[in-house]
Amino acid sequence: MAATKERKAHGILAQAGLEPYQPAAGEEYMNEAQREHFRKILETWRNQLREEVDRTVGHLKEEANNHADPVDRAAQEEEFAIELRTRDRERKLIKKIEKTLEAIERDDFGYCDSCGIEIGIQRLEARPTADLCIDCKSLAEIREKQMRGA
């Protein structure tokens, strides 16, 4: 089980051909090497999502059959609806990845949008598009729950 968690936690890193970033003693936060590390992660992730979109388009074209049986037709439509919902989420994620890549280019990556402190290398490797530190994100989630009345 531990091996599975480690593989999942470093999946996008492995796909990018990277190891978890190990900052040197006294290394400045979000220096060029760190920004390049995250740029590679984000570009790999974006490319992977784009390939998935292309596969889905091909799949929808190939599998679009007009089934005579209403149950078969309904099952196919439900399958397509689920795929399209997933691709829509991925489309939104691609936009967020591109926004994050722009932040890297502006030298504005790795710092909390709310309080301005460092988000941290480990958190960014776990969620490269994070724009809030863990404390601000926790507070935002608490506020969201309160607004929903949960």
TrEMBL record:
A zinc finger (dksA C4-type) spans 112-136. InterPro entries: DksA_N (IPR048489), DksA_RNA_pol-bd (IPR012784), DnaK_N (IPR037187), Znf_DskA_TraR (IPR000962), Znf_DskA_TraR_CS (IPR020458). GO terms for molecular function: zinc ion binding. Zn(2+) binds at C112, C115, C133, C136. Keywords: Cytoplasm, Metal-binding, Zinc, Zinc-finger. It is found in: Cytoplasm. Residues 34-104 form the DnaK suppressor protein DksA N-terminal domain. Belongs to the DksA family. This is RNA polymerase-binding transcription factor DksA. It comes from Aliidiomarina maris. The lineage of its organism: Bacteria, Pseudomonadati, Pseudomonadota, Gammaproteobacteria, Alteromonadales.
